[in-house]
Amino acid sequence: MTRWPEDGDVIIENYIAQLPLHYAITPIYYRQALNSFWQAVLRFGATDRQTLEYWLRERGEVWARSTVQHRARIVARFLDALADDGRIASNPISDLRHDYNARSDTGIIRALMAPDPDQAFEVLRQPRPFESSLGELLRDHVERMQRRGYRYEAADAICRRFDRFLQQRPDLDGQPLESLLEHYRRTKATANHPAECEKLARILNKALCHDDPSRPRRRPDNWPVKQVARGWRRPHIYSPEDIQKLLAIARTYPSPRAPSRPINLYTMLVLAYCAGLRIGEIARLTLGDVDMQAGTIAIRETKFFKSRLLPLSQSAMDALRALLKARQEANVSRSLDAGLFWHDQNNRQYCRASISSLLVAILRMASLKPPAGKIGPRIHDLRHTFVVHRILDWYRQGVNPQEKLPYLATYLGHRDINSTLVYITVTQELLHEASERFRAFASPGNAEPAEVAS
Q1: pTM score > 0.90 for this model?
Q2: Which residues, 6 or more positions from 382, have their beta carbon under 8 angstroms from its beta carbon?
């Protein structure tokens, strides 16, 4: 392996200087980690596993174990940068991760810190994907479906789990497919596992029928999926009072270190409720997606590979107008590629996870969700609420909602109205409006004109 360059101290300073570090103390931690590792490299003359093990043991006598792991991840990123620049042949941590098919650098670092690293690495070793007796069939099927334009991520994950199971059970090689599936069903007692096994059986049958068209199609069993559906949470439909409460909390969200956060969160909630946007769609919005003159917003390449141009209500446009004014006063980037929602620290764009965490915090502050845990209303339920309230408005305006469903499906970015129907949660108010419309329709001679119009 290429030896460490003699101008290592200069390279370390140049590397730290180009990093987007946000706190004054952070470069100090980076220098501590990288300079101490540099001394170990100078002693052994190479960036290899032996050097890493020595440095981790030596630092373990000085720093806490969690600190050593954190600093080791800093070193791993630095070695990646050196390898990309061609200053070293490769990153030894990445090499070990590849050799043992580990999921992250953290597992490799913990194994190197273990009393017996070799044994720790064997425990860490993961089967390589699609190397079981059915691996080639599964891999070819997933790649074929992805070439056809499907993301196929969920099916890919199911296939990989089944492939790992087969690699861990070599004694099952050569057994019939139904026998393999039965053994796999017994591995877990969770409620979702039978439904996953049913999906896996369909995937395998589809793959086998592609290779052999004369093979009979498998009759699907919908019972496991229905059992799982019974355990799904019923969407929470927010009342107008709930919406006003959430918006009021967002306007006054306590954030002394990020003064722009309240108006950002307020606008996010407005778009989630008034336009039915998903959290990921909100996170990906850019300045170029907003057309204030046309009163529209562009949603690009989202679920189902769909892009759409949405006309917005006046209240949503007012919220966007206030947000853009705040952006101008904050003197943040005006590039069309810049994120619509920005963080005060280095004007970074909010990521999906941050948006989800902050909006859930507002739900908790409004006492709509318990202080901890995943139970209670979700942010995604604002999308369900948007659908229910839109249908209620149509009923009250005398419009037949069934005729408008294709338009609503397009607005939401669904493939067809079947996906939209999932969002129609029957509430007492919706049931009342529907029954009133049916009564007016069924007895037009007995209904007052005002009743028919409603």
Answers
A1: no
A2: 238, 269, 272, 273, 276
The per-residue pLDDT of the chain, averaged, comes to: 88
Query: Which member of 87, 303, 348, 404 is catalytic?
Result: 303
Residue type, 307: S
User: Nearest CA to 138 among 150, 154, 155?
Assistant: 155
Give residue 82's region: left, alpha or beta (phi > 0; psi -120 to 50).
alpha
- 128 catalytically annotated: no
Nearest to 330 by CA among 347, 311, 313, 310: 347
Neighbours of 277 (CB within 10 A): 26
Per residue, what are the HEC states of 193-226? HHHHHHHHHHHHHHHHHHHCCCCCCCCCCCHHHH
Our answer to whether residue 278 is catalytic in this structure is yes
Percent of the chain exceeding pLDDT 70 equals 91
CB within 8 Å of 269: residues ≥ 6 apart: 246, 247, 250, 359, 362, 382
- Name the residue with higher pLDDT: 422 or 383: 383
Measured CA distances, 108 to 60, 104, 161, 166, 386 (Å): 16, 7, 22, 25, 47
Of 71, 139, 278, 383, catalytic = 278
Nearest C-alpha neighbor of 138 from the set 198, 210, 66, 87: 210
For 220-241, write each residue's pLDDT tens digit: 888 888 877 776 778 899 999 9
Q: Is 4 helix (H, G, I), strand (E, B) or coil?
A: coil
- In the prediction, which pLDDT does 266 show? 97
Local confidence band at 271 (pLDDT 50, 70, 90 cut-offs): very high
Q: What is the mean pLDDT of residues 237-262?
A: 93
Question: What would the two tokens of residue 11 be?
Answer: 């390279």
In 3-state terms, what secondary structure has residue 367?
A: coil
